[in-house]
Fold:
Amino acid sequence: MRALGPALFFVLVASCAEPTRCGPGTSLVDGLCTISQLDAGSALDGGSAELPVSATVDAVTVLEGFAACPSITVAWRDGRSAKLLLDPEYAVPVRNALHLASAGFTVDWQSMDGKTGTAALPSCQGALTGLAPGRSTASLRVTNAAGASALIGNVAVEVVSAAGITVRPQYLALRGPDTFPSLGRTESALAVGEERSLVVSFDFTLPPGTPAGLVAFPIPDALTLTSSDESIVAVRSARVRGVRAGVATVTAGYRFMGSSTNPTSQAFTVTDEQTPSRIVFGLPLDDRGFFLPDTSRTLEQLEVGQCFTTSVWGAIETTSSVALRSLDQVATVSLVGNGLSAPGGLRFCAVAEGEGAVRACHAGRCGVLATVVVPAQTRAPTVVATVTPDDLRTGVFGQQRLCLAVRVMATWGTATPVDVSSSPAVRFAAPFNGGPVTPLRARLDVATGLAEREQDKTCFDVEVIPNQPDSGFRVFFAGGQSEVRLKLRF
Structure:
């Protein structure tokens, strides 16, 4: 069975599901194995985190020689509970969740029969490893900074024998973090000084009768990683770092059942510390470290009182790749408008209704992360965008720059429409794929971080071709959007 996509793990599912089995001292409650007798900690002095007193853990089926990342929910003596997120870079909003990285305690797995162990993966700081085939029970131990620990839950584990299973490394890629901006970049480019986790993708050939829900995360200590030139790309414990400009090949294998797999290789290009092509922002995260609700790579609107943290990156672009260089420590950051305040660092809070934007600049390049601050529970406005004229003769074919009079009106409820044409929170994108249309792409002014403007007109790149269909673009503002179409004639 072939795993899908460049991920750090693969979930291998057989044709029919088996019932969940819980280990000794546990019972099945709402699909979770819940421990019935607890060895729990309590509140501790010295500023150490209070340990949870119980945990529910989904049953695990893991391939021998690999690891699984269990689903854990922990509870405290006062009745609080939370889903424990073991991926330090996971930022998707999860209701009632807690990052292990900020929990104040660590986790490990205790095994009586030696069939399971504990490993730290880039995407799972508390993975459960399969060391020997068979069914087993592992106990979850939590330990805080003061050294106090407690066993708070059990999990039923089935370690599937690797005999008869063929494992092949497929390809290498660079992992997140998830807060990186989306640039359509390739996964084989590094900037000088940039360090990333290395993902090794595997292909598994499974025999008939493989148990359902089999999971196989590669264990970093079992990977064999080498660089053809450590002075260009340095490899250390499943992480790679760009040292100087050039190209180096990283080769990966895996120690599996006492032998090593055939290796796979990937060339990585390291770009020097040149001036970034443009400045971009990382995903906005709330104070818990999760994406703000309803945001992707931009902030549409914020309610008064909401705060977020972001990051600043320099995009070093070539014709074939994009590398990212962190600028958090060197970029000059300022605020535009009255909607935001800057309590410190790269954390910002919505303090007043209206427009607010963060501008970051470095080496003559600027980027802007703009939003509209609104009262609580305000719906997105109705947005209507128009362009004048909507039937334009260009006088020339081919790629060209066109500056158009674009007007954007936003209406909240029954209020009077507001002209937001020059707002930094207005964004442009390609039109929907409904019918033939040639996109106009807004030009970015790298000196301001905003769409390029000339004499109150917005400038676009477009290709004019004979007998072309309508041209167009989309406009976004504060969660509302509009689509514009126009005729471009020779």
Summary: The chain has a mean pLDDT of 84. The chain is about 0% helix and 50% strand. The first strand starts at residue 10 and ends at 12.
